[in-house]
């Protein structure tokens, strides 16, 4: 041990509020505190030392086991250190380092060979280059590059983007008409389709989901425009904590197009076939259209998911048979138990 042989151990030390590190050599903790306080101009009586990496308090015995050039933080009074997380928090809490971080990340990215580190640096650059506070085309022309001139604000474009996705789902419903052989069934299906379009028009095609100017819970994002992955159809949350702000930059806007509004109960495999099946021997008026509308076009059955969380295999979730027909649904409500007894339908 260094102390036993009178040899000094070289370490790097910094203060709580300063990033600059100083080289100090000491044979024991007492000498380290004395030299450190003198260098950093801190009061010796209430000073203590911890590891920079995780905030572990350095005792005399622990000091003797430290490798050369260990990074330490000199604290005084009631100050505490949470490790390297402290520095990360400082960077995230302020914008004053943003430009320097961007330049440093670009420099590191050009020479980085590790795929994992390249991904981290790329994501960092994508999110730091954030202009989400800007809304109009005049304010952020770069964001609108490639966007039709009719869109004057980011929110208007994002709203239209969502409407287009929902309209696409309606087109898939209409396409099912070609699979119907019986003219009578086809006629009833067309009535159903027309009614669904009217419901969508009344709801403005649910474009509010992507529009940050809408109020909660109409929108899927924060007021600033941040969207969070809701996880795959069979999970309650996204384990990878994916998030994105397509309002922040042109790159983020383009990347957001790869995110999916995924149907938990699948649209093509389950919902549309269930609607077709219901109309085989029933009229459109018999079908619980509200139920199918919610499954096809609303958050009741839609989840916003990052492309990685989008599972393309069969979901194996079925429509609720008790909700398929309007009359059956109303009958079920009337037939609910009253004081422990079932009411009979007359």
Name the features.
346 residues; alpha+beta; elongated; single chain; 11 helices; two-stranded antiparallel sheet; four-stranded mixed beta sheet
Structure description:
With 346 residues, the chain is α+β, with helices and mostly antiparallel strands. It is built from eleven helices and eight strands. The protein has helices spanning 29-40, 60-65, 84-92, 98-111, 115-128, 154-175, 183-202, 250-256, 267-278, 289-297, 326-334; strands spanning 9-15, 22-26, 47-51, 70-76, 227-228, 243-244, 260-263, 302-305. Strands 2-1-4-3 form a four-stranded mixed β-sheet, covered by helices on one side. Strands 5-6 form a two-stranded antiparallel ribbon. A hairpin with a 6-residue loop joins strand 1 and strand 2 (22-26). Helix 4 runs antiparallel to helix 5. Mean pLDDT is 86; it is low at 331-335 and 337-346.
Mean pLDDT: 86
The helix content, as a percent range, equals: 25-40%
Poorly predicted sequence stretches spanning 5 or more consecutive residues: 331-335, 337-346
Rg from Cα? 31 Å
Strand order of the largest sheet: 2-1-4-3
Shape: elongated
User: What is the element string, with H for helices and E for strands?
Assistant: EEHEHEHHHHHEEHEHHEH
């Amino acid at each position: 041990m260094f102390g036993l042989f009178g040899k000094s151990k070289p370490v790097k030390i910094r203060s709580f509020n300063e990033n600059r590190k100083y080289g100090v050599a000491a044979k024991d903790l007492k000498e380290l505190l004395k030299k450190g306080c003198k260098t950093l101009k801190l009061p010796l009586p209430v000073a203590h030392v911890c590891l920079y990496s995780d905030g572990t308090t350095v005792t005399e015995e622990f000091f003797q086991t430290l490798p050369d050039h260990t990074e330490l933080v000199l604290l005084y009074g009631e100050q505490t250190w949470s490790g390297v997380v402290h520095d990360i928090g400082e960077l995230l809490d302020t914008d004053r380092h943003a430009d320097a971080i961007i330049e440093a990340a670009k420099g590191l990215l050009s020479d980085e060979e590790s795929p994992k580190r390249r991904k981290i640096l790329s994501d960092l650059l994508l999110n730091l280059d954030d202009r989400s506070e800007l809304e109009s085309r005049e304010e952020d022309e770069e964001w609108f590059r490639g966007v039709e001139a009719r869109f004057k604000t980011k929110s208007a474009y994002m709203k239209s983007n969502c409407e287009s996705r929902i309209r696409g789902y309606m087109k898939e419903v209409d396409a099912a008409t070609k699979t119907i052989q019986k003219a009578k069934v086809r006629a009833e299906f067309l009535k159903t389709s027309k009614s669904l379009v009217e419901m969508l028009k009344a709801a403005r095609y649910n474009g509010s989901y992507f529009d940050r100017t809408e109020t909660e819970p109409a929108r899927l994002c924060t007021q600033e425009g941040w969207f969070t992955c809701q996880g795959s159809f069979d999970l309650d949350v996204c384990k990878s904590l994916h998030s994105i702000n397509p309002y922040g930059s042109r790159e983020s806007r383009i990347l957001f197009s790869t995110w999916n509004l995924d149907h938990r109960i699948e649209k093509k495999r389950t919902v549309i076939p269930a609607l077709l099946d219901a109309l085989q021997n029933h009229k459109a008026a018999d079908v619980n259209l509200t139920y199918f509308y919610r499954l096809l076009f609303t958050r009741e059955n839609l989840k916003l998911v990052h492309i990685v969380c989008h599972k393309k295999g069969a979901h194996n979730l079925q429509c609720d048979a008790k909700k398929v027909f309007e009359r059956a649904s109303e009958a079920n409500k009337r037939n609910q138990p009253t004081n422990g007894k079932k009411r009979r339908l007359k």
